[in-house]
């Protein structure tokens, strides 16, 4: 039989599995974010036999735990990591909490400090307007909490 018609094993044609990407920059976390990482590591370590996906996830979460830096409490008068910010954007009021990359969940109002909106808000004070998405004064900060 010709080699052209021989079925090779599917193993030979699988895509390589890469490590989970680590977000660039410091691994800032809130105390709740650190607890989330510790919980992920503990749950993955509790699995007796891990498949390749679980082993990769465990390596990721161990790295994130080893590099975690608990951020100091945010100042009361300006937006910073850990702040809860109520703002107006395009006429609609919204509220977000600025958190670390691993704790981010935009649908729940938790945005990573590396997200464009968070970068626009950080450093601003209550009552200020900041540029966002190519527009000056696009976001008006209504209140800052913790």
Model description:
The chain has 146 residues and is an alpha/beta fold. It is built from three helices and seven strands; from the N terminus they run E-H-H-E-E-E-E-H-E-E. The strands form two sheets. The chain has a five-stranded mixed beta sheet. A hairpin with a 2-residue loop joins strand 6 (129-132) and strand 7. Helix 1 (31-45) packs antiparallel against helix 2 (52-67). The longest helix has 16 residues, at 52-67. The protein is elongated and about 65 Å long. The N and C termini lie far apart (72 Å).
List keywords for this structure.
single chain, elongated, alpha/beta, two-stranded parallel sheet, 146 residues
Structure, briefly:
Helices cover 25% and strands 26% of the residues. With 146 residues, it is α/β, with parallel strands linked by helices.
Kindly, what is the distance between the CA atoms of the first and last residues, rounded to a whole number of angstroms? 72 Å
The low-confidence runs, each spanning 5 or more residues with pLDDT under 50, are none
Average pLDDT confidence is 90
Strand content: 25-35%
Count every helix, treating DSSP H or I runs of 4 or more residues as helices: 3
Sheet with most strands: 5 strands, mixed
Side by side, the strands of the main sheet go 5-4-3-7-6
Cα-atom radius of gyration: 21 Å
Helix/strand-derived category reads alpha/beta
Large-scale geometry: elongated
The sequence of SSEs as H and E is: EHHEEEEHEE
Helix content: 25-40%
What oligomeric arrangement do these chains adopt? Answer: single chain
Query: Got a strand count?
Result: 7
């Amino acid at each position: 039989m010709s080699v052209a018609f021989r079925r090779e094993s599917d193993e030979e044609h699988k895509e390589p599995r890469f490590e989970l990407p680590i977000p660039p920059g410091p691994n800032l976390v809130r105390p709740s974010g650190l607890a989330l990482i510790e919980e992920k590591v503990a749950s993955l370590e509790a699995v007796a036999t891990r498949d390749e996906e679980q082993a990769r996830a465990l390596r990721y979460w161990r790295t994130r735990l080893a590099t975690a830096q608990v951020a100091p409490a945010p100042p009361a008068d300006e937006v910073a990591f850990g702040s809860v910010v109520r703002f107006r954007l395009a006429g609609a009021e919204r509220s977000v909490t600025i958190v670390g990359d691993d704790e981010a969940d935009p649908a729940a109002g938790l945005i990573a400090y590396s997200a464009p909106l968070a970068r626009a808000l950080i450093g601003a004070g209550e009552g200020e307007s900041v540029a966002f998405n190519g527009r000056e004064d696009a976001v008006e900060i209504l209140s800052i909490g913790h």
